[in-house]
């Protein structure tokens, strides 16, 4: 359990669910909350019992971005630099985590909250959820959210969100590829649980290999990507879980993963 004033963790059947617990501030990412979330992800990275992570928000929404009251109150360049550097490291930790991360979205996900959705490997949203990168409306362009957003959706869709600052409905977010599934809010938790259970039933070692390879090959040329992923598959074939999984498939039995 993390600092329960900021973040709660619950573990179930191989899935760690992290709940942002600043509902009165729409779970805005204060410096302290970002630090707590990063620390919890670091703990999960070395927790061999965890094979999937869910990030969700408490109260009326997922996350309204940075805590602007904290930032305006600080008024110091060093604090701003610390805040944005901490956020950038947090988002990269989501990507580099050895297990998949699912964003469970309800209400609003704006600015750095939208960035968190875009950084997650998968996202499931209530059909009433809304998304935005509204910094342009207050004179603070969403430059760091842009990094994740421009890698999750097509450039022109990202630019429209960034330049207009307008809220995007769940259906449009689904069409743009920002989220994987839309469900009624009453079914959001059960849908995410089912998806997380499916992922958590796999070999942790295999999930780690696949996730790392996915992000690395995406930045390569086609030829380099094939060369890299061919080597990844050779290494994957040599793992105990690959041998176990193939043997289980051939003999029509359930595999017994050792996660190595």
From TrEMBL:
Presence of keyword Cell wall biogenesis/degradation: no
Cited SUPFAM superfamilies: ClpP/crotonase
GO molecular function: enoyl-CoA hydratase activity
One Pfam family hit: ECH_1
Segments passing through the bilayer: none
InterPro entries the UniProt entry points to: ClpP/crotonase-like_dom_sf, Enoyl-CoA_hydra/iso, Enoyl-CoA_hydra_C, Mitochondrial_ECH-domain
Family of the protein in this entry: Belongs to the enoyl-CoA hydratase/isomerase family.
Function, in words: May play a role in fatty acid biosynthesis and insulin sensitivity.
Record-given protein name: Enoyl-CoA hydratase domain-containing protein 3, mitochondrial
Provenance organism: Marinobacterium alkalitolerans
């Amino acid at each position: 359990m993390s600092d329960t004033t900021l973040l709660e963790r619950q573990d179930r059947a191989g899935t760690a669910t992290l709940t942002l617990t600043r509902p009165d501030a729409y779970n805005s990412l204060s410096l302290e909350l970002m630090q707590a979330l990063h620390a919890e992800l670091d703990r999960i990275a070395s927790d061999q019992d965890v094979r999937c992570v869910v990030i969700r928000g408490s109260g009326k929404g997922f996350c309204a971005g940075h805590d602007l009251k904290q930032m305006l109150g600080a008024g110091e360049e060093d604090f701003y630099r610390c805040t944005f550097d901490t956020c950038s490291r947090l988002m990269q930790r989501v990507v580099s985590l050895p297990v998949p991360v699912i964003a469970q979205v309800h209400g609003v996900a704006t600015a750095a909250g939208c960035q968190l959705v875009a950084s997650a490997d998968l996202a499931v949203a209530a059909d009433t959820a809304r998304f935005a990168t509204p910094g342009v409306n207050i004179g603070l362009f969403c430059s760091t959210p842009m990094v994740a957003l421009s890698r999750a959706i097509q450039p022109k869709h990202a630019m429209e969100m960034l330049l207009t600052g307008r809220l995007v409905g769940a259906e449009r977010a689904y069409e743009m590829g920002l989220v994987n599934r839309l469900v009624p809010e009453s079914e959001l938790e059960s849908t995410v649980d089912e998806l997380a259970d499916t992922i958590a039933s796999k070999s942790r070692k295999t999930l780690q290999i696949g996730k790392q390879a996915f992000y690395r090959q995406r930045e390569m040329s086609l030829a380099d990507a094939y060369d890299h992923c061919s080597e990844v598959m050779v290494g994957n074939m040599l793992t105990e879980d690959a041998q176990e999984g193939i043997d289980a498939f051939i003999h029509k039995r359930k595999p017994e993963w050792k996660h190595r």
